[in-house]
Write a structure and sequence with these properties.
The chain is of the alpha+beta class. The protein is built from 3 helices and 6 strands; from the N terminus they run E-E-H-H-E-E-E-E-H. It has a 6-stranded mixed β-sheet, with helices on both faces. The two termini are 19 Å apart.
Length: 143
């Protein structure tokens, strides 16, 4: 699988009425990264959270999901721990492509500390978001 390509998680307009307001696109490299430390059940738990975000008018704010802006970056971090994730302190990074109405999953980490997100991870995600915006991943094939 080409690490510089994108898979479709959900399509805007699909799903139970009234349908998703946003598509969810996942960089293949981000999918591979997540599957390196998540079980299929844990991955599905996080995918459900992204489906919930895709159904909201503004996917960068949620009453039920912990989202944090990575300001001054223009991408976000979904934070989750416990439950089906057990002791895994997970961060999933995403950008919002308003022109395409897509939530773009950029990567994930198994956070090892209680402090801020490690600088190396921030730099890696910043680079992926820049590459996406420069169309280096292309757009996913839909249909």
């Amino acid at each position: 699988m080409d690490p510089k390509s994108i898979r479709v998680g959900v399509k805007a307009g699909a799903g139970r009425p009234p349908g998703y307001q946003w598509s969810v696109w996942i960089l293949n490299v981000a999918f591979d990264e997540a599957m390196g430390f998540l079980s299929p059940v844990q991955y599905e738990h996080l995918a459900m959270q992204f489906r919930e975000l895709a159904s909201q008018e503004d996917p960068t704010h949620s009453d039920s999901i912990s989202i944090r802006s990575m300001s001054p970056e223009d991408y976000y971090e979904l934070r989750d721990k416990g439950g089906v994730l057990g002791n895994i302190n997970t961060r999933v990074f995403f950008g919002v492509d308003k022109d395409s109405r897509a939530i773009v999953v950029l990567g994930s980490i198994k956070k090892q500390n209680d402090g801020p997100t490690p600088k190396g991870d921030i730099i890696r995600i910043r680079r992926r978001w820049r590459m996406y915006r420069n169309d280096e991943y292309g757009k996913p094939r839909i249909g």
